Structure formats: structure tokens, C-alpha cells
Amino acid sequence: MMKARLILRAAALMLAAPLMATFTYAADSASGEFRVYVRGVRVDCTAADDGTLCVPLYDFCAEMTDGEAAVSCDGGVFTVVCNEISVTAAAGEQYVVSNGRCFWCGAENESRGGGLYVSVDALARAFGAEAKHDDARGRVTVGDGGAVMSGDKYYDKTELFWLSHIIAAESRGEPLYGKIAVGTVVYDRVMSDKYPSTVYGVIFDMRHGVQFAPAYTGSVFRTPNEESIIAAKLCMDGARIPGEPFYFCTTEIMSTSWAGKNRTYIATIGNHAFFA
């Protein structure tokens, strides 16, 4: 079991690090611009307010597919299709969907000039590729990629079922990032030797009293809403909040709760406070 946990922890860290990090760049000394190269071709880019580097969705997909990508837009939802790859992103959302897989962007997808700008890191992962960052030179390069495994095959159905249910029960009405934060708490516990090694086990863990109230009240069995399912998929594809939180409570009791009195405060997201 210890070996399995270590393997899972390493995989989770590799997935989570690039997703949740914010990359900021010094401008190129010659041109005064940031630069992104996709398979050797430079594409336009812009830095979001939080430092996330974003590129035009269609331009990125076109370079990754040798210009064979076809784009459509319906109500602010952009879809790019080529062969076995289908990538969808919506203006104002913070994720991109590729073949049924959900990848966290951080910054909101932004409509600009008739197109949509999306995180280059998220798009690279959506194509099974890697965005390599050279901070000193203000440069990002993305190499060859391809179709990622479909969500139907990639996401374990039992894990997705319980993770989406606990996220919905604990954070219905919270922002997407707040839902990811709840999922982070579940996965941090799964990776710890102090807790059960499965999502189901963590949710229904009663060894030290009730850990997740919905497991006791029964609200965990209610059907999750769409955003909670998306949040669960994002977590299963590596999205995390930083700080390795193991506990959370409502902001109303954050100063009087056991976690508030005994654990290190990390952040407040929506109506929840998170603790390590």
C-alpha cells in the first residue's frame, strides 16, 4: 500500500504542478514581446491578469494539426475538430475540454478579435503535449502531440461518481475553483497514509468521527450538478489548489472550528476556509 501511495503521490504532483502554477515572464529584450512557438511556428499570445499565458484557440489547434482543424462557434462556445481530436472551450470559463477530458486553465478563456484566447498550458495538455517554459527568455515552446485518451476511458467511473457527489454536496453554489478546492482536500487525504486510499474510503471515513457531513446526513447521495462533475474531472486530471489542504469549514466558524484552532490556514475561497 505504501508503494502504491508513493506512485499515486508522484503522479498527482506531476499533474498538479503545471496546472496550478502562474507563469509570468520578462519581455524579450529585442522585441519587447512574449513569445510562444507551437511546433516551431510562432503564435500570438497575451498574459492574463494572473500571469497565465494565453494563445488563440484556433491558431494553436491549427498548428498542432497541420492546418486541418475546423472551428465553429455557438453562443461563445468554440469547438475545434480535426480527425480524432475535438477541443471545446467557452468564453468566461476556466477550463478546456478535449475528447471528453477537462483541463484546468486558471485564467478565464477570453473572447478577442472574433476568436478565443486560452491557456497555452491547458491546450498543450489537451493535445497530449507539454508547454516548456523558458522564463529567462520569455519563451514557451510546444512540440508534437496527438489525441488524448477519451474521458470515457480515462476517468474511473466509481471514482468520478463519488468525487462529483461529495463536491456537489459540500460546495453546491460555490465557484468552480472552490469546488476544485474541496476535491483537493479529498485527494490530499487519499495520498496520505493517515487516511483511506480511495475517494470512497475518504468520504465515508468515520475512524475519528464524521469527516464529511454529507456522508452522515445522506446529502452525498443527491445527484450532482454539471459543474460539480466538471470539477471532479478537472481534479482527476490534476487540478489542485496550492498548499495541500486537508481540512475546510465554512467561513462562519473558521475561527471557532477545530481546524481553525489547530491547523495552518491556507485560503478562503467562496464561503469556505481551507487549512493544511
Brief characterization of the structure:
The protein has 276 residues and is α+β, with helices and mostly antiparallel strands. The protein folds into two domains: 23-149, Copper amine oxidase-like, N-terminal domain (Copper Amine Oxidase, Chain A, domain 1, 2-Layer Sandwich), CATH 3.30.457; 155-275, Orthogonal Bundle (Arc Repressor Mutant, subunit A), CATH 1.10.10.
Explain what this protein looks like in three dimensions.
The radius of gyration is 20 Å and the shape is elongated. The chain starts with a helix and ends with a strand. The chain contains ten helices and 16 strands. The protein folds into two domains: 23-149, Copper Amine Oxidase, Chain A, domain 1 (2-Layer Sandwich); 155-275, Arc Repressor Mutant, subunit A (Orthogonal Bundle). Helix 5 packs across helix 6 (176-190), helix 5 (157-171) packs across helix 9 (226-236) and helix 6 packs across helix 9. The protein is α+β, with helices and mostly antiparallel strands and 276 residues long. The model is unreliable at 1-32 (pLDDT under 50). The longest helix is centred in the first third of the chain and has 19 residues, at 2-20. It has helices spanning 2-20, 57-64, 120-126, 151-154, 157-171, 176-190, 199-203, 213-217, 226-236, 258-262; strands spanning 35-38, 41-43, 46-47, 53-56, 70-74, 77-82, 85-90, 95-98, 101-104, 110-112, 115-119, 131-134, 139-142, 247-250, 265-269, 272-275. Strand 8 (95-98) and strand 9 form a beta hairpin. It has a five-stranded antiparallel sheet. Strands 2-1-13-12 form a four-stranded mixed sheet.
